[in-house]
Amino acid sequence: MKTLKSRLKEKIENCYLLEGDDFYLYDKAFSMIKKASKLELEEFNLLKFDDENYSMQAVLDACEVLPMGSDYKIVVLKNIAKFSENDKKMLQNYLKNPSKTTILIIFDYFDKLTNLKQEVAFVDCKRFDRKTAIAVLLNEFTKRNKQISGEAIECLLDYCNGYLTRAMNEIDKLCYYDINDPLVTKKIVDQLVTKDNDFVVYELTEALGQKNSDKAITILNSMSKEQGLLGLIVNHFRRLFFIATSGLENKELANLLGVKEYAISKQRSQINNFSKMQLKKIYALLEEVDFNIKSGAMLQENALYYLTLSILYI
């Protein structure tokens, strides 16, 4: 993603494969490619396919049609959840001799076409590293003639779990909260930005690892009515267990557990809060709680507190 602008100045490719977990970066990459192509008459030359209207034959037929009043036409294949093996073969065959006047842009959020990376122009849309993400956000505040404190921007990125997609959606709200004050503070971020559930679970895990019972219970009280919270906590600790015991690299673990690499890299810093024996006991506790819920012996809300209090004393 960081080199896309310079690559587009050198050459416009006939197929771009976008993969990652930050939708803001997908949209940014798409806009950059479209701008470089100098697309005209979008109603004729921009076609989009998603799960509602997708068939590989329809996509390839669209790619073969010449543009109208423009040097290029753009065909977007957007986040298809299922590709058959035949679909993949058809696409690979097309890529051997693609239409020179068509730019095929594939949004592959579900990582279904990773095998094509060597055959197309690949654009990495995974969450930016912290330094780059903060630089992007600071630029957005500057555009609005606003400043944001260092502590506040760190919190904004944390609360949005590193997603520029979410953080961008919060900026206008933060900037216009007090139009007379040029500075956005941490207090304003705390008031206006809802914490991402994954970040809340991360905070809770930190508190449990540090045996900070007051903070752990406070977090739990604020989130106990949230749907799916127990599942997030269970999955979080299962990943911690595998990170601590498997010896696999982040990418291998992400593929094995069916999550994005960012989630593994962020959690890896937490394994120092727990010994391998503690994580083994917690893993067994998760199995116990899961069985009790499924058998009707324990309500989910009760299970949250039972799980949290038990981890504090493991």
Would you give an account of this structure?
With 314 residues, the chain is α/β, with parallel strands linked by helices. 57% of the residues lie in helices and 9% in strands. The strands form two sheets. It has a five-stranded parallel sheet, sandwiched between helices. Strand 3, helix 5 and strand 4 form a beta-alpha-beta unit.
Strand order of the largest sheet: 2-3-4-1-5
Proportion in helices: 55-70%
pLDDT averaged over residues: 93
CA-atom Rg in angstroms: 23 Å
Query: Given the helix and strand composition, which structural class is it?
Result: alpha/beta
Total helical elements: 16
How large is the share of residues in beta strands?
5-15%
Q: What's the total count of β strands?
A: 7
End-to-end Cα distance, whole Å, is 43 Å
- Low-pLDDT parts are none
Tell me the overall shape. globular
Largest beta sheet, briefly? 5 strands, parallel
Topology pattern, helix = H, strand = E: HEHHEHEHEEHEHHEHHHHHHHH
Task: Chart the SSEs and their pairings.
Layout: H1 4-10, E1 15-19, H2 23-37, H3 42-45, E2 46-49, H4 56-64, E3 73-78, H5 85-96, E4 102-107, E5 121-124, H6 130-143, E6 147-148, H7 150-159, H8 164-175, E7 183-184, H9 186-192, H10 197-209, H11 213-223, H12 229-246, H13 250-257, H14 261-268, H15 276-294, H16 300-312
Parallel strand pairs: 1-4, 1-5, 2-3, 3-4, 6-7
Helix pairs in contact: 1-2, 6-8, 7-9, 10-11, 10-12, 11-16, 12-15, 13-14, 15-16
Protein traits:
57% helix; 16 helices; two-stranded parallel sheet; 314 residues; five-stranded parallel beta sheet; alpha/beta
